[in-house]
Amino acid sequence: MKRSFIREILESVDCETISFAGGLPNENHFPVKDLKDANLKLYENSKNLQYAQSNGIEELRQQIAEFYNEEGFETNASNILITTGSQQALYVIAKNYQSKDIVIEEPSYLGAINTFKMNSMIISTAELNNDGVNIDKFRFAFEKTKLAYLIPDFQNPKGSLYSQEKREKIARMTLENNAYIIEDAPYTQLYFEKKPKSISSMIPNNSLHLGSFSKTLSPSLRVGWIRANEEIIKELTMIKETIDLHSCSIAQYTVSNYLNDSSKYKKHLQKLREAYKTKMEFFVKALKKHLPSFEFTKPMGGMFIYGRLKDVDTYELVQECIKEKVVFVPASQFYLDKKICDEIRFNFTHSSQEDVEIGLIKINSIYGAFKNEENLIT
Amino acid sequence: MKRSFIREILESVDCETISFAGGLPNENHFPVKDLKDANLKLYENSKNLQYAQSNGIEELRQQIAEFYNEEGFETNASNILITTGSQQALYVIAKNYQSKDIVIEEPSYLGAINTFKMNSMIISTAELNNDGVNIDKFRFAFEKTKLAYLIPDFQNPKGSLYSQEKREKIARMTLENNAYIIEDAPYTQLYFEKKPKSISSMIPNNSLHLGSFSKTLSPSLRVGWIRANEEIIKELTMIKETIDLHSCSIAQYTVSNYLNDSSKYKKHLQKLREAYKTKMEFFVKALKKHLPSFEFTKPMGGMFIYGRLKDVDTYELVQECIKEKVVFVPASQFYLDKKICDEIRFNFTHSSQEDVEIGLIKINSIYGAFKNEENLIT
Q1: I want to staple B249 with a disulfide (CB 3.0 to 4.6 A). Which of A143, A201, B52, B68 is the partner?
Q2: Smallest CA–CA separation between A128 and chain B, in Å?
Q3: A346 beta partners
Q4: d(Cα B109, Cα B118) in Å, to the nearest integer?
Q5: Is CATH 3.40.640.10 the right assignment for the domain spanning B46-260?
Q6: What topology does CATH give the domain B5-23+265-369?
Q7: Element (H or E) spanning A316, and its range?
Q8: Taking CA atoms, what residue in A is nearest to B23?
Q9: Cβ of A51 and B22 within 8 Å?
Q10: Tens of pLDDT along A17-39?
Q11: pTM for this one?
């Protein structure tokens, strides 16, 4: 088992390095003042500092359930398990389905792959296209595994968005096979045009829907959740309490107090989407200007621009880039067998405009040198 | 796998029930004002709200290392892994030693037993006496398992304290067998007379020493840690980041800011010890007066009074007590095979003096009825 390339990179690069690597939200857009007020408030009652319920504090589970209900996806507080970020949601689920078969998109989120492997799950893959997973390949695997892990909204790493047609097909397939899907949705709120409708809402009893406040409020809180049927939530709660009794309740009360004014949260999300859309547009323009060989599709939301830099192993390229103080994630990391790969994931939410330009110019220059070298060898 | 009896009880009893069950610190002794100030301070830098290092924030790891150094137990920040409470420390370790043999004290902490079982560890036991584990039985098992889980200071549930002689014997045995001990020390700071010296300090490379702020500052923070050699910490960090990327950094910064004034922390601990000693003395007196059949040894620290109520299955007794709105933990829960058992664990830190008296009088009356019934049947 290797450590996550991204976590290692995040911890090893110095602060002078321009990083397009991590899935970092932009610190300038954290609602610092409002979070601070919400946090402060919990100290009014010293009972809030006591041990809390394993499945999460009641108020917060109720508020999250309400978000689902607002969209017509009927949900009670007892359908919600609070986790230490989405990552723990994945771990708890992987532990529950330990040694079982699962089909995932390829490429997919590295943290999920590692978690599934660590719990001896047997992973099949289905190719991910720009409108969602390749349905024929997916069906072939899913009929056997009866369990799938999907990121339909602004996928990590690919940024892709499932078409409505594919969503409906997968929902149908799930019921036909008496199967389950794990729908990971940390980026859903970061849409640029229209909020996508979850697959889970079409199959409430056959889905585990994962959400998180890491990308919308702050990752430091480590507050995520699972929405599933009550029976599954009970099973997962047993695992969750064996792992850490319960998630930090300082953070849970902070989020809950923050959400008490729901119009504030909605305004914040609206501003965040606008800011990230602007950042995406700038990154796209900069790519076209400074790294013209990079082929990509403009994302409709989320945090990533994904594409192809022809005729280069991007894993080798990034090693050189790190020396020159710029870093991205070579996409081989998102493939199960880490095969040689010419794809790249860029994060567009974190860096300043100046850094985007400097960073891309550097990458282009190193890429040029690489190509020349290769030509010499051939 | 059953849910933890204690967690279930904590969540199911209503607020009118007098509970001697949970290992709850007393809310009146949380340093609310100082924690609030420490918490507030983190909002001065919005970077504190970003993703943090997997192994924990540097400042806090440094401060914890310093505590060890003050006692002559040489430790660097790189020897520390921050976890979501001690419970996660146990889980991460159990995952690392998955399917391996381990010897534990009997009785022992239920959360540890569940975690070891969940990770398919093969558990042997050695009887725990009032001065520590039975050395002959321990040696017999330890020579085979090469891994032990011990709570030498004010054990949960037994409240027992290891003698210096037993500590030294176990340290020697560990080195002779090229083995490891997991030393769980959440109660160490709650001593009434003298701080016990850890076994780990005698065998720094062959020990995993676990600490927590749950019993000293607040359990809501979910901040615990593991102190071990760097190689082990690296292995455990890989597991930790697969579970939840990192522990809540709001809580980590809060603790770190709080500890910046170390004299404040020391004064707080001193006051806490005095308050808990007073509560223990009161509980002891009340037991002698209201539940005279209960045989026990006065603890030297920690949170529990443990003993025997002859001729009754305390698991059956507690079912009746719950109906009468008083609850404790029947000790069968702390045994591997949950055998019928006449022992009880009382928590003495949480209830008010009034509740202690009312609760014990109720238990005595139900116990009396039980004994009479039994006499009728025989």
Answers
A1: B52
A2: 24
A3: A305
A4: 14
A5: yes
A6: Aspartate Aminotransferase, domain 1 (3.90.1150)
A7: helix A314-323
A8: A51
A9: yes
A10: 999 998 999 999 999 999 999 99
A11: 0.96
Cβ separation of A222 and B244 shorter than 8 Å? yes
Q: Is A3 exposed, middle or buried (0-12, 13-18, 19+ CB in 10 A)?
A: middle
Contact A245 B85 (CB under 8 A): yes
Q: What are phi and psi of B6, to 5 degrees?
A: -65, -45
Does residue B251 sit at the A interface (CB-CB below 8 Å)? Answer: yes
Residue B106's φ and ψ, nearest 5 degrees, are: -130, 120
Quick one: pLDDT band at residue B13, thresholds 50, 70, 90?
confident
Chain B residues inside the 8 Å CB shell of A35: 43, 49
3-state secondary structure of B210: strand
Q: Which of 61-120 (B) contact A at CB < 8 A?
A: 83-85, 87-88, 91, 95, 111, 114-115, 118
pLDDT band at B378 (very low <50, low <70, confident <90, very high): very low
Is pLDDT of A375 > 60? no
Start-end of H helices in A260-302: 262-290
**Looking at the partner chain, which of B53, B85, B248 has a beta carbon nearest the beta carbon of A222?**
B248
Q: What is the pLDDT of residues A140-160, one digit of tens each?
A: 999 999 999 999 999 999 999
Alpha helices, DSSP H, located in chain B? 5-12, 32-41, 58-70, 85-96, 110-118, 135-145, 164-176, 230-244, 249-259, 262-290, 314-323, 353-377
Closest residue of chain B to A3, computed from CA coordinates: B238
Bridge partner list, A226: A81, A210
What are the residues whose beta carbons fall under 8 Å from the beta carbon of B378, sequence distance 6 or more?
none
Pick from A212, A150, A30: nearest CA to B244: A212
Q: Which of B76, B55, B53 is nearest to B65 (CA)?
A: B76
- One DSSP character per residue, B118-156 reads HTT-EEEEEEEETTEE-HHHHHHHHHHH-EEEE--SS-T
Tens digits of residue pLDDT in B100-152: 999 999 999 999 999 999 999 999 999 999 999 999 999 999 999 999 999 99
Sign, Cα dihedral of B148, B153, B159, B165: positive
CATH topology of domain A50-261: Aspartate Aminotransferase; domain 2 (3.40.640)
Hey, which residues does B308 pair with through a beta bridge? B295, B343
Number of H helices, E strands in chain A: 12, 14
Residues of A in contact with B221 (CB under 8 A): 49, 248, 250
Contact A220 B54 (CB under 8 A): no
Spans of all domains in chain B: 5-23+265-369, 46-260
Radius of gyration of the CA atoms of chain B, in A: 21
Q: Do B111 and A248 touch (CB under 8 A)?
A: no
Binned at pLDDT 50, 70 and 90, residue A378 comes out as very low
ipTM above 0.90, yes or no: yes
- From the candidate CATH numbers 3.20.20.150, 3.90.1150.10, 1.10.150.120, 2.40.50.40, the one assigned to the domain spanning A5-30+265-366: 3.90.1150.10
Residue pair B19/B351 in contact by the 8 Å Cβ criterion: yes
Contact A48 B242 (CB under 8 A): no
